[in-house]
Amino acid sequence: MSVIDEHLPDRSLSEGPAGEPAADPVAARRGQAVRTAVILAVAALAVYGGFILLMAERSQG
Amino acid sequence: MSTATTTHGHEDHGPTGIRRWLTTTNHKDIGTMYLVFSLLMFFVGGAMAMVIRAELFQPGLQLVDPGFFNQMTTMHALVMIFGAVMPAFVGLANWMVPLMVGAPDMALPRLNNWSFWILPFAFTLLLSTLFLPGGAPAGGWTMYPPLVLQTGNAFPFLIFSVHLMGISSIMGAINIIVTIMNMRAPGMTLLKMPLFVWTWLITAYLLILVMPVLAGAVTMLLTDKYFGTSFFLAAGGGDPVMFQHIFWFFGHPEVYIMILPAFGIISEIIPTFSRKPLFGYSSMVYATASIAFLSFIVWAHHMFTVGMPLAGQLFFMFATMLIAVPTGVKVFNWVATMWKGAMTFETPMLFALAFVFLFTIGGFSGLMLAIVPADVQYHDSYFVVAHFHYVLVPGAVFAIMAGVYYWLPKWTGYMYDEKMGKLHFWISAISVNLTFFPMHFVGLAGMPRRIPDYATQFADFNMIASVGAFVFGVSQLLFAWNIYKCARGGKKATAQVWEGAQGLEWTVPSPAPHHTFDTPPVVK
């Protein structure tokens, strides 16, 4: 069980669009955390790869 | 599946002994491991500094050959930056960020474990190069080509260990951002977060943006050496100066990675011991963000002497000077917080006050170095060594020590020995100035950095600096002993510990239980 399962702040993701309780707020919270982590990891990889490609192009002339 | 209001027992049923530490996903355990690791690296890097200062005690070559001296300067920097200062801040973040935002743990606990356990492997690789034929890397921590490409067997070890440190830092940063953005207690809006959390949030973004740039640069070094590319080799159409631009595009934000969390710690401690709220909270947040932004547009001030167009020189000079504005806001706010406060001077406050005073000296010498015509004179001299050691030792390291003394009772449940803490502070504060202040003088008089020998005119100041360094080094044993003593027992600490302390971390008992905030607190 993830720590996110045990910790659900009473914030927007606890509620559905119309203010009623969300179908699975814990999953929503966990999903948001994982999404944030994946976006940040992809950003780091993109900087790494993009930088090397840029330099490769530049060093060819 | 539990809900927000579920509480459960605090007893652990996990593995014990060494397996507990290998497999732990608890933020407090991992924070402790980071802090112990960084203390160990502090002494390893410190031992290298002692070799450097012993050799420089007198002019001439006495103790080590010049090649080994160069290995010591290179390894001292790498170990202190990546092994001591950065892991210490990550350790403090691991311990304190979840407690400060009211979260039960970091958002990604397994990633957290992995982030830590990469580090011992990275530093085993790096330190093992000391025993290789040809010795450790000796081209400076900046790894400039073509010099660094002359490194022997140690080269791939260096590159791989830098990659591992980068991976560890990026994973740690991702974890901190995800925790802060997703796990704050109800009611804790962004502008209600403690300053330490804010500074770490911004630092974590800096890490994610610049560590891949360093990784890219060292990957290109590796391919230049072993795979026939010419990214930085002039003979093959590459550009060695490009490496310097790339390195400092990482390197300057890296400086702020090592100082922004320090600002956060000082911003926690000064209000506590002044018994007043922090003056200008929101301006502190905006100043931190401004410093982070400016850190990306000043990198070339490290390489004015390499040569660049006048427009470039002017841009990087003025952009660098601009950093003094948000930094000045911070210093003003710390002083204004103390103004008419009911101040007391326990050890954390003493270190925090020394930080404000001595970091400002380092900031001023930085301003001097930003002036292009002056920098042409100062570049690669001991003045630069004095400048960045003032920023990093009585700056970053003093802030870490302040933070450790401040939060130690919360971690162990016992008060540390205040008398020994104060003794440690005074010996450290005096000896750190004895070590680094004379370096301004020898630098201005023309003594170059990274050399094992020097002209006899510099002998007196170097002897003073070496004596200061030995005293500073030995006095850190008091720090280690005080921590050990405090972990073993002493006067019981209350939950709040300090009379003026505010924040969620002071609402949990001391020592903080293994699991905290199973039920999220509500922040009004």
Task: Tell me about this structure.
The complex is a heterodimer of chains A (61) and B (524). Chain A has two helices and no strands. Chain A is rod-shaped. Chain A has helices at 3-6, 25-59. With 61 residues, chain A is an all-alpha fold. Helix content of chain B is 66%, strand content 0%. Chain B has helices at residues 18-23, 27-55, 66-101, 109-128, 154-182, 195-226, 240-257, 260-274, 281-294, 310-322, 324-338, 347-370, 372-378, 382-412, 418-444, 459-488. In chain B, helix 12 packs parallel to helix 15 (418-444). The radius of gyration of chain B is 23 Å and the shape is globular. The interface between A and B is large, with 32 and 46 residues.
The total of helices of chain A stands at 2
| Number of β-strand runs of chain B | 0
List unreliable stretches of 5+ residues of chain B. 1-10
> What global shape of chain B is seen?
globular
Roughly what percent helix of chain A?
55-70%
Structure class of chain B: mainly alpha
Q: What's the main sheet of chain A like?
A: none
Strand content of chain A: under 5%
| DSSP strand tally of chain A | 0
SSE series of chain B: HHHHHHHHHHHHHHHH
Mean pLDDT of chain A: 71
Overall pLDDT of chain B: 95
- N-to-C series of helices and strands of chain A: HH
Counting DSSP H or I runs of 4 or more residues, the number of helices of chain B is 16
Structural class of chain A: mainly alpha
Inertia-based shape of chain A: rod-shaped
Q: Calculate the terminal CA-CA distance of chain B, rounded to whole Å.
A: 28 Å
Q: pLDDT below 50 for ≥5 consecutive residues: which ranges of chain A?
A: 8-17
Largest sheet of chain B: none
Strand content of chain B: under 5%
